[in-house]
Amino acid sequence: MNTNTRYQPSASPTGAFSYSSTPGFSHLQYISSVFAIRILEHSLRFDQSKNNDFTFPRQQNRRSPIYIKSPSFNDDFIFYTNILPFEMQNISFNISRDFERGTRRNLPVGPNVSYFTSHTTWKAVDSDLSTCWQTNRAIRAGDFFAIDFLRAQTNITFILTVAHSSVLQENLDISISFDGIWWISYRSLRGIFIKRKQTSQKELYIILFDSAQFAPGFESFRYISFKAIEYSDHRFQVCEVQIVSKETITNIQRDFHPLDM
After folding, report:
1. Which of 8, 65, 202, 256 could form a cystine bridge with 193, CB 3.0-4.6 A?
2. How buried is residue 233: exposed, middle or buried, by Cβ count under 10 Å (0-12/13-18/19+)?
3. For residue 203, which phi and psi values (nearest 5 degrees)?
4. How many CA atoms lie less than 13 Å away from 48 in the CB half-sphere?
5. pLDDT score, position 80
6. Contact indicator for 199, 111 with CB cutoff of 8 Å
7. Contact, 191 vs 213, CB < 8 A?
8. What's the gap between Cα 86 and its chain centre?
């Protein structure tokens, strides 16, 4: 989970400020991570001491999916993807001695890691169009990025700003879900609008999704995903995800044209 921890606004003379910028935060983060791993190891070994036949595996094949996630600045949704910044299962680990496993000090080194810090999922929800989440490899069939709106929503409107090509975006399978387990593909283009924006650094495509105009039966959902159905030489590049209020949708929509034009 990549996020920017911060205090809520207070009556302090200096106002609200980032908790992660306070003195000693890095050390607190480190000792908290180490302490959590020691608790885990103690619990596992305690169970083993009660039952001589019980052993916990040193290695385990990954069966459940692992996602990289980041909450929005206002904590009203979570952006996530299945594309990991590096193959974590290739990092060797011995729980009896490697207490830094869950800390940043144990991150692998190399170009992939430094690339991830510059293009983490947090860059897609930081309300800054100059920064983007970007994958560090080409897209494979089944790769996706998705949004969790935290609860079932009806007639929700949001904007997705991408720096990857409109061709890649339009060929992604759009699916919605109430529970994140059962998904329904949204084949129609109703309620989806787009406009192009040229900046000094890159060309952006701003895509407006108004589920109130979706085909009947698709107006409500909690999750929406954008999944590649085949290999692509392109990379996902998402610069911003933003929920739009109903009060402003009419004026905003005038600048867009339907995706199926």
Report:
1. 256
2. exposed
3. -95, 130
4. 9
5. 94
6. no
7. yes
8. 15
Residue with tokens 């916990």: 56
Query: How much is the mean pLDDT over the chain?
Result: 79
Q: Quick one: CA dihedral 117, 119, 123, 129, positive or negative?
A: positive
Phi, psi dihedrals of residue 223, rounded to the nearest 5°: -115, 150
Residue with more model confidence, 66 or 83: 83
C-alpha separations of 24 from 16, 36, 106, 144 in Å: 18, 18, 19, 37
Strand 157-162: give its sheet, edge to edge. 133-134, 237-243, 157-162, 203-210, 192-198, 257-258
Can you give the residue ranges of every domain in the chain?
67-85+120-258
Residue pair 224/147 in contact (Cβ under 8 Å)? The answer is yes
* CATH number for region 67-85+120-258: 2.60.120.260
CA distance 175 to 47: 42
Lateral strand order in the sheet of 184-185: 68-71, 78-81, 144-154, 220-227, 173-177, 184-185
Of 182, 237, 172, 179, whose CA–CA distance to 209 is shortest? 172
Q: Are strands 78-81 and 68-71 parallel, antiparallel or unpaired?
A: antiparallel
Closest CA to 86 of 131, 122, 120, 136: 136
Choice among 142-151, 171-180, 240-249 with the minimum mean pLDDT: 240-249
